[in-house]
Amino acid sequence: MMKLELSPRLAAVAALVPEGARLADIGTDHGYLPVSLLLDGSIASAVAADIRTGPLDHARRTAAEYCLTERVEFRLCDGLAGIGPEECDTITIAGMGGETIAGILAAAPWTKEGHRLILQPQSTQDVLRVFLVENGYRICREQVVREGERWYPVLVVNGGSMAPLSHGEAVAGRADTWIVQDERCCYLRWLLHRTEQQWQGVRRSERPEQMEKIIRLQKIVEYLEDQISRLQE
Fold this sequence. Notes:
By secondary structure, this protein is of the alpha/beta class. Helices cover 42% and strands 24% of the residues. The protein is built from eight helices and seven strands, in the order αβαβαββαβαββααα. Strands 3-2-1-4-5-7-6 form a seven-stranded mixed β-sheet, with helices on both faces. It is elongated, with a radius of gyration of 19 Å. The mean pLDDT is 93.
C-alpha cells in the first residue's frame, strides 16, 4: 500500500482530521496533507487550495505521483474565497502566521457553522487565539508538536463561545483545553525562556512607551511560571 510520510508538524494536524471528513486544506503548498489522508483512506474528499500557482502546481504533481489527481480538487484562491461551505466539513490551515489565519477566517464567517477547524499557527498564536474568542469561535482542544528546535501548537476549533483570555492564556492557551499535559509542560518552559528574553530586553529600554509592553510581558511570565508549577505538583 502506498504511503506518504508527513513531517511531525503535518502528522499532528492529520491525526486530528476526523474519519470520513470532506477536507479543505488551505495553503496546501505541496499537497502532502490531503494526499497522505487520501492514501490512508481516512477522508472522503479533498480540496487543496493555495494563493500562489507555484505551490498549487507542486500539489498537482504530488497527487499525480500517487495517482490521486482525480480525487483532489485544486483551487487557486486567497484563503477560503474559492471554496463553498457545502464543499467541506473540516478545514486545515497550517504553516501560516496567526494573523494570516485570523484574516482568512474573518473573510469566511461561515466557518463557524458546523465546520471543524484544525489550525497550526507558526507565529503570533496570541493574535489568533484572541481573534477566535472575540469572533464566535471556541477552542475545543490544544496540543503541541516539536519539529526541530521549535514547538508548534495545533488548535481544534469550532463555532461557539469562550470567556475572554488573559495575556498569558492568549500566548500559551487555556489549561482546560489541553489534552497531553506532559507536552504542555515542555511547551510552557520553551515559551517561558523566549518570553523572559523579550522581557529582559524591553526592561533595559528607558523609553516610556515601552512600559505597557513591560507590564504585559511580566504578566505572561508570571502566568507561565504558575502553570509550570501547577503541572509539576
